[in-house]
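Help! Submission page says 'invalid entity' but I think these are all valid:
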Amino acid sequence: MSVRDVLSPFTAWKNLFRDPVSIPDPLNRAAAPRYRGFHQNDVEKCIGCGTCETICQNGAIDMVPVEGIETKSGDSGLRPRIDYGRCCWCALCVDVCMTKSLTMSNAYTWVENDPDLFCFTPGVDKKHWDNAELGYHCPTDRRITGQVRAHMRELEPETRIDSFVEIVQGYSVEEAILEADRCVACGLPCATAITSAAWNCSTPATRFPASAAASAPTSARTPALPATKATRSPSAG
Amino acid sequence: MALYTPDRSQYPAKKADGTLDIDLASGKYLKLWQGPNHPGITGNMSVELTVCGDEVVEGKTHVGYLHRGFEKLMERRSFIQCFPIVCRICVPEPDFNEYCYAAAVEDLSGIQSPERANWMRALILEMGRINSYLMYLGGQAGALGLGVIGQWTTYARDLMLDRFEEMTGARIYHMFILPGGVRDGLPDGFDQRMEETLREIESTMKDVHDVMFHNAVFKKRTVGQGVIDPAWLDQYGVTGPNARAAGVAKDVRRDQPYLVYRELEFEPVIGHDSDIYTRSDVRRRDLLMSVDLIRQILAKMPRSGPLIADMPSMLHWKIPRGETYVRGECSRGEYGYYLVTDGSGFPRRVNVRGPSYTHAMALLERMIVNINISDVAALMVSLHTYPPEIER
Ligand code: SF4
Ligand code: SF4
């Protein structure tokens, strides 16, 4: 213990002469451009595939019918409704969105008296942050679902010209697995039209480098991805 | 001060089974609960004290106020769905959960996270360490009535949260370290803003040094108090600054370098007296070391290249049968994830080794005996424990 130990604490008084460091207007503080705030959805782009609902580990998303959007080929007619009493703003739904219609604005202040209003369908129930440019958008070069389409091999034109051999060569097992891996089992008809049967018999784990070394990576359970979503009735909750 | 007396005859005798013979009806002893809702407790746990006069004769730790069952929850979530859950296991320093979980998944599936992602991860972990220490310093000073330190460190921490916000998109639960890499790179102009923040933190730390560490009251109440005997380190599994303050240079970053720590220059900060003062000082110096590490990381990290590995769709992940233990040095000591997979799309078992489990339970119960009631808060905070990681 020294004289310094007795006097030094008094240096705290110098803060009397400092400017305050608090934020003068916290309600109007802008969030960072990447902030993960309330969702927005481009309902015209969204196809109601329900992949966002599948990945949400909080069960915050329900697919609900929306007035004015019909069920048609390639569109279930449903749109994601988000319950902000459950959402944890992880943005996995944004990352997984098949059409990139679902994004997050950087809006984080919204005051309402009625708690039920915090369960709404982005893009359908209009909000002040709709069409915000800032906020979290899934980077274009990264998707958590398979990106690369496996191309089906075809015969060269020179070979085709004088034979009746099937032009389209089909997939090898590896290519089929790669392609099945892209499927999100939404049940809506799509170009690749991989059926849920293809998904069930695929073992995407074999693409993991480690699994090549593991002798018997048997699947004990299959993730309970619903085969079709379009036909499901929306839950009332 | 304490009614401490070297005459032990007034204190309870040990019964044959090793428990203390405490007769509450005698009026000599009093039961006192500190927590779960008490400013002198770290988070949601409580200590059941039996006191004789001002002196604690026995202390029992109670947890269970914060049990959310993360480990069990994860057994029913796909691998990617566990990612937003893990950060919640430790609120003030969530990133270690994200990193350890991601590294464990990568280990079992054979994914290699890209070089640039590893640098980003190290940056995030060091930023989180600074935040955690800033929070600790406020708590340690506050436990001894020095409230102003908490105000300053909260300000400094808030600046760091701003950096987190612009980098990860969130302030507290960043949910940024995905298995396979990280979500994004650095935003434009980040280096400069980070440098300003680091300078501000250094200047705050200088004030903290003057007012907290050169403070007659703080010294009087912490020097020689709450000594962890170096012999207990292995016995109780003490790691991190608690061990380093006892003179043992345990630091996973150096002992078993992960991420990019091999390429950074640093020496584990150690102290020798192992008391509350030394532990605070080790953490203060460790914080300044993290400031230096962040500068090194920003100077050395690659600015281009992939941020996430090429992987199969995370919706379909089935990870081959296996088990692994991944560890890292968090601000409280060794943080570890033990992950078992069975080839299915869900983890078979996840076990989180939070350093608070060993520090706040067995070690605290041992150290709390024979101290003054008014020192319980300071002792407990000095072990730097976060209850959520005790009860995962
Ligand atoms: S994943 Fe995207 S496209 Fe599919 S339902 Fe959700 S918001 Fe719409
Ligand atoms: S941000 Fe996360 S928790 Fe919220 S709706 Fe999307 S997936 Fe669910």
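Support: the input was valid. A stray whitespace character was the problem, and the output above is from the cleaned input. Residues 192-206, 210-237 of chain A have pLDDT under 50 and may be disordered.
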